[in-house]
Amino acid sequence: MTIDWTAADGVTVSLDRDPRWALLSISGHGAPDTDLLTTGNPDRDERLPLHAVAQPRLLSLTLRIEGESLTAYEANRAALAAAFAPWRDAGTRSRPGALALTLADGRRRALRAVPRQGLAWASGRQRGTRTVESVLLEAPDPFWYDPTPRTGAATIQSPGNLRFDAVTELGFPAGFGSDRPSAVVTVTHEGSVRSFPLFTVPGPSINPSFRLGASGFSVAFSLTVPQGLTLQVTCGAQPDGSVDAPKAVLIDDLGGESNVLGALRSGSRFWALGPGPNTVVLTQDTPAVGTVFNYQFFQREVAV
Fold this sequence. Notes:
Layout: E1 2-7, E2 12-14, E3 21-29, E4 57-66, H1 70-84, E5 97-102, E6 108-117, E7 130-139, E8 144-145, E9 150-155, E10 182-189, E11 198-202, E12 205-206, E13 209-212, E14 218-220, E15 224-225, E16 230-234, E17 247-251, E18 257-259, E19 276-283, E20 292-297, E21 300-301
């Protein structure tokens, strides 16, 4: 297993393979309630995951810093402090970053965290050439995630393609999905904690919507996505820190973004993928076929 820390500026330091210091231990607490409650028809893989409000995860890293001379020691300590300590000109604000683990079988796990008690910048008063230091990290989102996102796509088919038998039809509003261009896809989340998806829809597309199976949760828009523009819908906070809240934007060919949350239809509710298979229904008014809905999510875990 390897352990790295990547600060907000993108600089990565190895905590366990750098000869300038040695990682002696990692300890911590703050695991959330891991019980998951589900509701819905057990005959379908459509579930609403619920869990208790998670407590921030606290991790304490103990490292031994050393050098062949006092000058080398201070340089090594300053290098490590640069990764964890606040900016020189930013008062007590700490850099957010990611603690990343590569497991023996090649799986990767990361945790977004902020140093709460880090190393101070070297002052030159240290008289020895070896010392043991501690860094306290706080992760507001206490769940580990795979930093490689899961992706997929579904292509809109002509109206009438989404059909149900006499039993499961009862779980849907009359005619739902059968009179609009639509697609249905099973998204399997192999993690143990719910994860918010991100959707992108290239124009043209009129009144797109995203529904979590028969749960009743749907994100629907009264919106025309013109040719050449892309609708991007983020259902909730992303563990990699790229998005902190639900949002919906139109993106032009130059990368400019326009907020379109005001186009949400009444009753819309952002939703998350639960552990296991999730049935996702995608619809729009026009065009009848061909529009590709792309999705992305991060696999999230209670523990490594």
